[in-house]
Amino acid sequence: MNSIGWRFPPTFWTANLIELFERAAYYCWFMMLASFLTDVVHYSDIEAGVIGGVFAAGTYFLPFLSGAFVDRAGYRRALLLALVLLLFGYTGLRIWSQKHWVLLPMSAIMLGGALFKPIITGMVACSSDAAHRARAFSLFYMMVNIGHVVGKTVAKPVRTNFGLGVMPLCSAAVTLGALVAVALLFFPKTPSNGTRQGLSIGEAWRHLTADLREVLRSGRLMAIVLLTSGFWIIQTQMYSSMPKYVLRMVGTDASPEWYANINPIVVTLLVVPVTQLARRLSAITSIALAMALIPVSALLIAQLPHFIGPVPLPGMLRLGPLAGAAGILHPVTVAMALGIAMQGLSECFLSPRYLEYTSRQAPPGKEALYMGYANMNRFFAWLIGYSLSGFLLNAFCPDPARLDPKMRLAYQTALRHQSPLPDVYAHANYLWYVFAAIGGFAFLLLIAYSVLTNKPKAQ
Questions:
Q1: Topology at the third CATH level for domain 10-185+201-397+429-453
Q2: Could you tell me the mean pLDDT of each successive run of 10 residues in the chain, 459 residues long?
Q3: Rounded CA gap, 28 and 167, in Å?
Q4: Which of 102, 126, 237, 392 is most buried, judged by most C-beta within 10 A?
């Protein structure tokens, strides 16, 4: 790679293809995880929030351990193990969809996902040099979001035609295809740290603890991980608060799965050109732009429905995925669509440059380990954001099935006639103010971080 271009080795493209399939399988089910836990497993909003938060957080917490395992075991063997765990988990969700039992297949998905993440990001990092890394990760992120779109697009017809309980089987089918491809088809040889393979358990443990101490001592890495978690706390609401919020405020005809597709579509279309346009900006400046936009998106979702009414759509647009049964855009739908689009734009500024920034902190041969730690910002975001969403939904936008009969009848009547909902939903938008405040505080802290890290070394 002597000149800047778009040519990458086969390993890079293989990693991107596998990532696309895994993301499609994951989001076909995960998009409606909160609703799955309340409607199928019959947990409360608070219980579903805590369980979903721990599950999602675990897939980002465990990579700091699984990344070290990948560096030692080799990418292909680790990838096969990850896909087997995912296949078992998705299939098991259909079999064990009862309280407490559901935690078993969810744990398998959590472990498989945690193992999968550093494999793929490590492959991308190893198959690109410093000059090409920003472009490599922009292409990688484009493929990630294509997988998001495919999974969420399939989720809506599966939910409406077969029910939430069947959705994991679609994920299992896609995962099985990826597993067969990795096991039987051509898989390019990937770089690995050969000096660490074949170690005894004791030696491996000593190396692991040394790795953990080394990464934890990387002050800049850990600081940027904590700060950017404020961005992802708001972004995670697309999967925790948003589906229930939309279905409860707009009605069951709404399509939260397709609303969520706005984000990956925006990212897929814009991530490469935005990365190119912002290439003269430092990575930290690009991240700061994203952190400034994300709380504005939450404020937009909270405020806009108070200033607009239902929006009738002309012609064929009345059949579009965002329109309601009467071909009319609900004010909440309009606000949600614009807010999610703004989140997608902000993600274009953040994600490729964040991956580039954190990958540059990694010493040679430890890319998977460090990229595993880079994902810990999502760990904090899911643990805090998803769990908090359950409490906020319960307080401001409660489950209609848990209302008393008289209140539930008034709620159903209001939805049918598009009239104001009962008073218990009067302040439903308050939950978005909470997340906007979190994002704004994280932005201010990032500005302070930027000032401190730009000081001369003498200071």
A1: Growth Hormone; Chain: A; (1.20.1250)
A2: 60 82 91 91 94 89 70 76 93 90 94 84 73 74 82 87 88 88 61 46 62 73 88 93 93 86 85 83 88 96 88 58 64 93 92 80 67 79 94 94 90 85 92 96 92 63
A3: 7
A4: 237
